[in-house]
Design goal:
It is built from 9 helices and 10 strands. It has helices at about 5-20, 85-90, 135, 150-155, 165-170, 180-190, 200-225, 230-240, 270-275, and strands at about 25-30, 50-55, 60, 70, 75-80, 100-105, 110-115, 125, 255-260, 265-270. The protein has 2 domains: about 5-135, N-terminal domain of MutM-like DNA repair proteins (Alpha-Beta Barrel); about 150-275, Helicase, Ruva Protein, domain 3, CATH 1.10.8.50. The chain has about 280 residues and is an alpha+beta fold. Helix 1 packs parallel to helix 7 and helix 6 (about 180-190) crosses helix 7 (about 200-225).
Length: about 280
């Protein structure tokens, strides 16, 4: 799932390459991605891009007074330049993800919006203001923002009778964090993913705040300038706990373990995070 560091890098590349260019044609191949049926993406043809930004894990392509094209990448969505297949896609045994929509501009390659899932998770809205999109309007404070404060963090976590990992991924509480970076944050903070936020002590909250800001900020800095075709691979390579099942923890050397979380699998270090307790894995 794309998360804020990669979406930020994607937005910055699109902003640099598309601002000032005119959208000349839109080809929506999968009609289900259009969430504003009265204003489909094709309605922006002929308009000039005035900037590209990010809201949490969503993209915002602004077209001046004509409106905004807001793109939710969902669980498996991404973008690529036409004619360019990511090295990781080309090397894989599976075919590259299908294109669900193509945005053609007056200069340079077209932008393809893709989705690699078994079900369509990509979504597009055309609106006058990005905050008309419910997924944008509900977003909590963003740990990547210079304005993000300890007060914002405490408001999201302190006293919550909910698992810490779930709170970190709750977009209404903290914008932009998903399964992978919540694993990385919790590992860096040495906090159990399944403990309730209300049970965290002062030292744990301090470590978790520092890790939340530090992990997200460092990842954004590391991804900045990486071509969008390589961003997913760079994310995977940088993980210290997430996706490292069976590998030694880089802190203590214990084996990174899996556990079942919601509808997916996540990773943690039993020694660093749970006092040696092995968390349940579905089907075990």
């Amino acid at each position: 799932m794309p998360e804020s560091p990669e979406v930020q890098a994607l937005a910055e590349e699109l902003d640099a390459r598309l601002t000032g260019r005119t959208l000349v044609d839109v080809d929506v191949i999968e009609f289900r991605i259009a969430k504003t049926r009265g204003r489909p993406p094709e309605s922006l043809a002929g308009e000039r891009v005035t900037g590209v930004t990010r809201h949490g894990k969503l993209l915002d392509l602004a077209f001046g007074p004509a409106g905004h094209l807001v793109v939710s990448l969902g669980r498996h969505g991404w973008a690529r330049w036409a004619g360019s297949i990511a090295e990781s896609d080309a090397a894989a045994s599976d075919p590259p993800p299908p294109t669900l929509a193509t945005l053609a501009f007056d200069e340079g390659p077209a932008l393809e919006l893709t989705d690699a899932g078994d079900w369509v998770s990509l979504g597009c809205w055309v609106v006058d203001d990005a905050f008309e999109v419910p997924a944008v309007a509900k977003l909590g404070p963003d740990p990547a923002s210079a304005q993000f404060s300890r007060a914002d963090f405490d408001a999201a976590l302190v006293g919550r009778r909910k698992q810490v990992k779930a709170v970190l991924q709750e977009q209404e509480s903290l914008a932009g964090i998903g399964n992978a970076y919540s694993d990385e944050i919790l590992h860096a903070a040495k906090v159990s993913p399944v403990g309730h936020a209300s049970a965290l002590g002062g030292d744990e909250l301090d470590r978790l705040f520092d890790a939340t800001v530090g992990v997200v900020g460092a990842a954004i800095a590391e991804r900045r300038g990486v071509p969008i075709a390589r961003l997913k691979a760079e994310k995977v390579a940088a993980m210290r706990a997430h996706g490292r099942t069976g590998e030694p923890c880089p802190v203590c050397g214990d084996a990174i373990a899996d556990f079942t979380f919601a509808s997916t699998t996540a990773q943690y270090c039993p020694t660093c995070q749970t006092g040696g307790e092995i968390l349940p894995l579905k089907g075990a």
